Amino acid sequence: MTALSNGTFLVVGKTGTFPAFTLTAWIYNADGSLKARQDLDVPKHEVPGVYGDLELPAIDPMAVELPDGRIAITWTVNTPSSGNTYVAPWMSIYTADLRPIGTTKPVFDPISGARDYAESIIALDDGTLVISARNEKDGHAYLRMFSPNETRSAAIDLGSASSSAPGTVLTDVTALSNGNVAVVVREGTSSLKGYVLTPSEASGSAPMSFEISTTSSPIKEGVKITALKDGGFVVTWMEQGSAGTPDFNTFFRVYGSEGSAVSAIKPVSSLSYPELLSAGHSDVLSLPSGGFAVAYEKATGYDASGELGYEIHLALFDKNGTRQSDDVRVSHAATGSIDLHELHLMGDGRILVRHSQGMQIVDPRDKAISLKGTAQNDHYIGTAFNDTFESSAGADRLEGAGGNDTYKVDNAGDRVIEKANEGVDTIETSVSYALSAHVEHLIATGSASIALTGNALANTITGNAGDNTLDGGAGADMLDGGDGFDFASFASSSYGVTASLSGGDGDSFIAIEGIIGSGFADTLIGNGTAELRGAGGNDTYRVRAGDAVVEAVGQGRDTVLVSTSYALQVAAEIEVLKLTGISARSSASLTGSGTANEIVGHAGRTTIKAGSGNDKIYGGLGNDSLWGQSGRDIFVFDTRPNKSTNVDRVYDFKSKDDSIWLDNKVFTKLGSGTASKPKKFKSDMFVEGKRAQDAEDRIVYDRKTGAVYYDQDGTGAKAQVKIASISNKTKLYYHDFLVI
């Protein structure tokens, strides 16, 4: 088993039944749940006695992560007893997702009669692999290195290594922060020795050893070593109290980087017989705080069947070997005994304990952590304090556990998991990102133009120097766009909203230059410099000159209300442009877009240029100036005519394209017709000339002057009234006029 830098952990074992064995890997998430199970592809190798199959006889697989995320796996091949038999370790490299790279390589040559067992493996910062092994044939321990390009070095003889029990682990190795390697060896039943060596200078013989324990204890077992954060290391071992007694305790000693002792030999626990019954097991690991943790077994007595029971305890020490707290009981066997196997430090600083009944995670952290992720898909779990997580490529899963946590993410697939009432948390992001539940703040970093989306809480969302889009989601949010041209968005809203650049729908805005509406009927209010974007629904815009309104095709029937002169953008899919709230004594101009618009003037003088598209133009009261421009345009007269104050001038009427609609609520003698079903004039209702010719005439057109008159009776009993002037004096026909 090994903990991976991305916060997950890897277990390697052999599965299946004879002869269909395979090496299998299990990857677990940071919360202990199974992430993936994968049978490993072990490259074949022509080895005498096993026919190239290195899985069938595999025992004791071990794994280590290389600095670049690759995985090195070593295992010992124990061949069948017949034929050319040997015991020798092999090594294979895999990608982070456990695909094999290159060929499988022997750690020691598989020659007949060999008895070499791999016992520990580490990876140095430069990618060098260091493997310790014992040779049961010559009784020596060895160290083997593979360079970053997998070139095998000469074996380093560490001298005698003997055991009172065949199969007992006799060696352990650790990488020091200065690039050196420290290794410990059980030299004899009661003697331990250690070495510090420089990998680049290592040769076939070991350097001078350093002292570990000189006590006269008859048996020393379970030697372990781990590097400390300050550059030194700590060694632990099991030691029998006296010959013939069943009490074993765990001891440790702290060393400097060169191998000199900086602490006395100390017992890990103050237990005595019968709680120190039998040898048991122990392990040690370095902690991010600079100290270390030691796990040991405590005997609980014999059960009814006579089986000795154990429980696992964990002791924490600082870098000098001073105990930091009361020991923690990690696990108690539900039934029978529980045996300690190994400890590993997880990527987020928690401790992973593997024992005979499974795996457990222990959290020794007593202050906030600051973690920077890997290029892989990381999974880290925080503390109850104010933690900082920094993503570093990959789609990461980051879990807070209380405190005011800060998450720095760089991938939209990064998942932040918080629970209710676990502090006020902040996500800093350099990419478009949406808050997950129970996170309060979202801040854009860098200068890219990104989208920021809140959740159901009252969020504070802050943009960067780019052009950001901020959507608070539900809740009364504070949106601060920062520099750049930023939008407040209501795209996530489930109903229509009313919003201006100062806020809307309970949200407050700072440094917001534009608004994006919901998919429903919104009212968006400009300030003279805003950009307002609808997003579906029949929207209403209340704007000033200088505001830009953006609508796309198929996004509802939208209305722009203005109190001053205004021009739609050419591409704006706005259906209605209307002057409102402006004095009749003021004049204004309206300009349509390149699509079909209804443009409505006010009670004063209005100049309307409809633009391209099939437009409908309402001059309203006042002496208006009207241009249909391109398209099939309709000029609507629906206000009471007045020869002095309400005569509109049409500048570009084209009979083949355009038409004039007259409202029968005002022009009461024209007969029936509605806006939905306009009714064409009869031919005798129109006459060209200066005045009506008979009682059927209702519209008189003086082409010489361009004047258009309405005559109620066609007899002269009631005076005709000038209603419009056709500036281009084009030819008009009766079918140019319709009644609504």
TrEMBL record:
It is found in: Secreted. GO terms for molecular function: calcium ion binding. Gene3D superfamilies: Serralysin-like metalloprotease, C-terminal. The keyword Secreted applies. It comes from the Bacteria. Keywords: Secreted. GO terms for cellular component: extracellular region. This is Calcium-binding protein. It comes from Microvirga lupini. The lineage of its organism: Bacteria, Pseudomonadati, Pseudomonadota, Alphaproteobacteria, Hyphomicrobiales.
